Amino acid sequence: MKIAKPVWMNQDKKINIVVVGDLMLDQYVDTDVKRISPEAPVPVCNVSSVFYRAGGASNSALNIQLAGGCTHLYGFTGKDEARNILVGLLEEKKVDTRGVSCVDGFDTIKKIRLSSERQQIVRVDIEKKFDFTTSYRNELLRGIKKLSNIDAILLSDYGKGTLDRDFIGSVISYAKERNIPVVIDPKGNDYTKYSGATVITPNRGEACLALNLKNDSSVSKERLAKELKERFGIEYVLLTLGQDGMYLYGGELSEGIHLKAQAREVYDVSGAGDTVAAVLALALGSGIDVIEAVTLSNIAAGVVVEKWGTTPITKDELLVAIDNYEGTSSYGAGVKSKIKDLEYLKAHIKTKDQRKKKVVFTNGCFDILHAGHVSYLEKASRLGDELVVAVNSDSSVKRLKGQDRPINSEENRAYLVAALSFVDYVVIFGEDTPKRVIDELIPDVLVKGSDWKVENIVGADTVIKNGGKVETIDLVEGLSTTNLIGKIKGN
Fold first, then answer.
1. How far apart are CA 301 and CA 246, in angstroms?
2. Cα-only R_g, the chain
3. Residues 345 and 372: beta-carbon distance below 8 Å
């Protein structure tokens, strides 16, 4: 399974992602250890270097920015040197920090890690419990609502107090009204506050805690994901499983999808969850299908765990990893996931004024898939960003072609078309023509074979009236299902 270059990297327009959550500064103290202290049985650490990294929600923000997005960060810091260092790290990479508020009496959360030869010796957390007032959170919410264009929202919850139930609910409600996906990196044992989110990304331990289950091998990933989705009203659950990869369940998936881990050698898992949530939000915000978005997140996680310290992924690193990627999702799941009903497609590709991708549409029976079909569909895919193929149902084919057709069932025909890498979605329709589908989707480009005149193409009037184009493509001469059937019969 090859993954294409992410669409946000091909666009001039930036994808705007709002990140809200607990902001932290990570300090790394590298040391040389050559002896044990005579005062106590502890190593004597001679400091060789000190460096800082953005942590928590700040790390998610940097991941999005460096991977090619445009991040608007919201959260709280104190009025201290840690804030100055953290904001400096973020602004150096062009993260929008206007939503980062100073709070009187609050100390910026800081995590200090002492290590020697890339082995962490101890972590020291500098943080105090602080009760943020509703007025502080309302200030964040007002700032978010002032943004003119938001493509996705990421809530990075470390349980440090930035995100409370009311605030999370307000953000999710605001996003749902505007059809903005919400990704949540969760914390705690009460996931009811995340109800209505698009995706949550707990690890196995967090999932067990939320469901009040013992974290052992007797609890399957399938059970965890399904119960989280159904109990808390979340569209998709992405369960991160460390060395065992990830498991996605929800939406239109009748079965979950398991993706194996991509890392070749793990140096440090610090910040890997931030990277997963960040790339997922960026991908969904750019209109990428959830399965491909999760695949990109899995690839990105495999890169960052090979680095030392909390380190975000860069655009170039992600592109190299994509080029080297070999698909490891469950067999058949990726193909079947392309076959959608009309209601799903309407919600996914959105209206013409909302969508970020150019949608190409064509249709046919595709009874016996042959080289002519493949050539035609490949050419059609080049006319836009997403290719939607409508396939006639069995009853429709019988009415159009006769009682001895189709040769292959609608499920098999749809599956074969969906297996083509350049086809993004397949929808089965039962009418004699795809007019209803075209009227509902209003594609940007409508495609038929060159044997059709534009004025006779069903749906052409709808597409042209809405500012779209109708294109005809030359067919491979002599190749047709009817001719193939004739040869098989010896005609």
1. 10
2. 26
3. no
Neighbours of 260 (CB within 10 A): 16
Give the rounded percent of residues in the chain with a pLDDT score beyond 90.
61
pLDDT of 306 strictly over 80:
no
Sequence-ordered list of residues with C-beta below 8 angstroms from that of 352, at least 6 positions apart, any chain: 442, 444, 466, 467, 468
Between CA 109 and CA 125 the distance in angstroms is 8
> Rounded to whole angstroms, how far apart are CA atoms 43 and 37?
6
CATH number of 342-489: 3.40.50.620
* Extents of the domains making up the chain: 7-334, 342-489
The four Cα atoms 92, 95, 101, 102 give a dihedral, to 10 degrees, of -10
User: 3-state DSSP call for residue 152?
Assistant: strand
Strands ordered across the beta sheet of 386-392: 425-429, 386-392, 359-364, 445-449, 469-473
CA 199 – CA 175 distance, rounded (Å)? 13
CB atoms within 10 A of CB 403: 6
Q: Is 394 one of the catalytic residues? A: no
Among the listed residues 30, 185, 274, 444, the single catalytic one is 274
Q: What CATH superfamily is the domain 7-334?
A: Ribokinase (3.40.1190.20)
- Which segments of 260-368 are extended strands (E)? 359-364
Mean pLDDT of all residues belonging to the chain: 88
Residue 459 DSSP symbol? T
